[in-house]
Amino acid sequence: MIAFSLGRLEAPLLLLGLVGFIKAHAFVAPCRPRPRYESAARPLRRWAREHGADQSKSPIVEALSLAAARIKAPFFFPGHKMGRGLPVGLPGPFAETNTALNKTRVHRDDVWQHDLPEIPELDNLFAPEGPIRDAETLAAETFGGAQRTWFLVNGSTAGVLAALLALVRRHQQEGQQHQARSGRSIQSKVLLPRNVHKSAINGLILSGAVPVFLSPVYDPAWDICHGVPIESALQQALEEHASGSEVAAVLLVSPTYHGAVMDIEQAALLCAKFKVPLIVDEAHGAHLAFLEVEVNEPGNVGPLASRAMTGALAQGADLVVQSTHKTLTAVSQCAMMHAGKGPLVDSAMLEFVGSALQLVQSSSPNYVLLASLDGARWQLGSPLGGGRAALHRAQKLAAKAKRLLLEETPFPILKPPDRPKGGAFVGLDPLRLTVGTMGTGMSGFDADEVLIEEHGVYAELPASRTLTFAVGPGSEEEDIDCLVAAFKALATLVDKGKRDGSQDMAGEEASSFMTDFPPFDGKQAAAGSLKCGPRDAYFTASEVLSTNDERVVGRASAETVCPYPPGIPVLLPGEIITVEVLRFLKGVLSTGGSVTGCSDPSLGKIRVLCWEKEK
Ligand SMILES: Cc1ncc(COP(=O)(O)O)c(C=O)c1O
After folding, report:
1. Ligand 1 nearest-atom number relative to CA 196
2. CA 100 to centroid of ligand 1, rounded, Å
């Protein structure tokens, strides 16, 4: 088992390491049976007395450890009963350990012993009043002074869905009161970039909101979209749509998957002026507030980056969703949502967010996940945590990788802009490293295959012309050495291919074929391309046609079609299918990418609407 040592916390908080952490942090309390007369609420009340806002505590981790130690006869779910009922003879997480210790039962790694349900002393995620409440309060302080923080066990996906549901619900209720039309729905618009993650599109389907798409800045050389220009896109859209109080929310994505950070402060001021709440999908930016921007040369993060790098909460966003599992050390699926302290964040908004979270999350949240969120916060909040030092070390490693790749290989690296484009791209996350493959005869997908097969180097995001790598608090010097060596070998391969003409140019052709249709440059989001809103389309009668059938072009899609990663849909329910979109999607498949969200991932068929409502 990988132990989680207090002295050196640079390694990621792996699931099993977490258990070491749980053990190390168990407060020593006598294991005594609960007296018969004691009510279920007692342990929580006792908890409330013992714990204040002390960042060196880890409330969920401590409560979980104590609970696991005192349970003698588990008659609760999960059925594996603290690991005892798991399959025998399988490797990996199922591998039995220390069998000699226990002759009758196979002893399991501690992670299974901490997979407990909502017994009284462990609190309740949806009505927290004990360790979960305390852990969320500590996180609210650590992550920049949130009014309220919610722990999420279904990723940022749950946060984005709940934020949209809550704000559209609030908008509907206020609008109905205002117009004395109680019970009858009004139109709720949401302003958002066309290149949002599919969770936002699913949030539109669930909430029934009508999207107003904002065109992001598109860089054709790299085939990458950045943020949204604030004056030319966001302000214009607010002026056009918000004056009639039809806008329920603005949702922005910052940083993007490639690390482009927007000027959220400027966007937040603008939204406040129009009294429209701002949601920031900061799935890729949970670490931003803890970076040391000055340790990097401005060339690595951008001239205006220091303010933008403080994170969306500090810059005035109303709801901020962060994937703690992506850039910090929580286990996959773990995320947080923070509510800001602006005037629009009132008790009704907080209540609606809490209630929406119950719609989109399991009623049996996993305590190992919750404890890992608590552990990730502890790393950054406690003076003993070492998490900030680990992030600063990661910054230095990423800067070293960039320097060596530029000096020793011919591959270009995505740079922060010299002149920020209207607030759309004011800084670049120093831990995100995007390498270009243009001019090599290889697509990013081809290069990814070589790096994996021949060097064991795994990128986070391969794309048509790029490979994006995420450096993090668990990254090591050797990882950087491996990466640089792999790109040097790739350069030799490319050279050899060019010299003897053996380089297969299919990748190059496919990538230029893909850039024929820059899908999110605003053309697709132009008026008329949406036949109806995503929710209407989702519930409208539909049929499946072959993608070679000429009737497909001009029909509205009934499904979300989404290259993955990055999980940004190319077709939404209700959006008109064009020749260019089909060519682009087939280009994704032919360059080695995959397509999700649709009924046929090989794209032989596609589901289209049978009839379409006029907008
Ligand atoms: C911009 C963006 N938002 C939201 C999400 C969803 O995050 P999660 O995987 O934590 O649910 C992702 C996932 O990649 C993303 O890239």
Report:
1. 1
2. 43
